[in-house]
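Data availability excerpt. The first of two example chains:
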Amino acid sequence: MQLLKFDIPGVLGNLTTRTWALQRSYNWQLMMPFTIEGVLGVFVSQYCQDVKFGDYSVSELTSVRYGAFQRFYAGIDQIDTVSLQFIMPVDNSVYDFFRFWRELVRSPKGHYQVKRKYAKNIYVMTYDRSGIQSGQYLCHGCFPKTIPPITLSYGEDSVLKWGLDLSVDYIETFSLIGSIEQSVVKAIGSIPGVAKLGQGVQGLLGG
C-alpha cells in the first residue's frame, strides 16, 4: 500500500490524501488444468518462471470512402503467441509434458490430428499483495509450436531453463476486483433515492 497526495493546493487540505493499492509484477500464477499422457499440467505449471503475450497494438487501419471523405477504422489485434519459460526439474516432467503435447498435434509419422484433440486452454492468474486474486487471463486454443533443443554443456553450473512458444487463438481478460466494484455500485444504484450514495461509493472504490 502506498500513500499518494493529490497536488491541489488549498483544496480540502489532507482530505485529498488517498491510499492506492498498486500491482506487483511477480504476483501471478500459470495454470494448465489438464493431463497429457499421465503428466499433470497443474504439476508442470509450478515450474513456470516467465509468461509473455502480446503485443496489443493495432497493426493496420481499414479505410472506407464516404462520398468526398475517407474514414479510418482500427484493425484487429494480432496476438498469436504465448511465450513461456520453465526451470527444469530432475524428473524431466516439463520436457515430457510438452513433448507428448506436441505429439498430439502431429504424430511421429507426420499425420496432423483434429484441432479439438490438442488445443487446450491455459490460465494466468494475478494476485494483489494480500494474496487475493485480482485478475485472470484465459488463453484459448493453445498448443506448442515447436520443441526447443536441449543444450547440454559443462560451461556453467546453473539451473537449466527451457523456453518455448505456444500458439493461441485469442486471449480473454477478466478483472475480478473491477467486476466486484461494478456489482456493488449497480446494487446500490438500483435502490430508489440513493443514486448519489452510489456515486460516492464508486469514487471510494476507484471508479
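And the second chain:
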Amino acid sequence: MQRRLVLKNLGLITGGILILPSCNFSEEMATIALNKLQITKNKEVLLTDIIDTMLPEDTILGGKSVGVHNFVWIIMDDCAKKEDQESFVNGLDLFQLKIKKTHNNSFSKLSPNEKESSISTILENKNEDKDLIDFLTTTKNIAIWGYKNSEYYMTEIMPYSLVPGTFSNCETINNTLKINTNA
C-alpha cells in the first residue's frame, strides 16, 4: 500500500519538475501568448505606441483601439520565417535604442509630432540599419492590412456587403457614398 503512495507522489513531483521550466513568472511577461516569439511587456507597449503613431485616433478609431498591434504580433509569430522574426525583434530593439540615442527619452514619452517625425526620419534615411528599416516597413504594411480588414473598418468606415446587389442595372457612382475597396 505504501509503494503505491510513494510512486504516485514521485510521479507528481517528476511532472511538476518537467513543467516548471516552461512557466514564466516574470513581471515583464507580455499579455499576448505567442508560440515562437519571446517578447516582453516593454516590447509589446513599444509596438503598440508605434502603431498608434502610424494609425492615430481622431474622429475614427485608431490602430491601438482596434487592436492592430496584436494582429501584427500574431502575423509575425505565425506566418513569418524564423529569420524574419529575428529581424523584426532586432529591428524593434534597434528602434528603441535609436530613439533613446536621438531624443534621450523613451518613445512613449515623446510628443505625437516627435513620434511621427522620428518614424518618418528613420524611414527616409537610407543609411539606417536594414533590420530597423525592415521592421518599420513590415509593421506599417501589416498594420494597414490588419486595420483595413478589422471588423470596425469593415462595418463602420467602409461597410462591406457580401452580395453588392443586382448586376443587371448600371449605376452612376455617387462620390458621397462609402465604397469598400474589398467589395
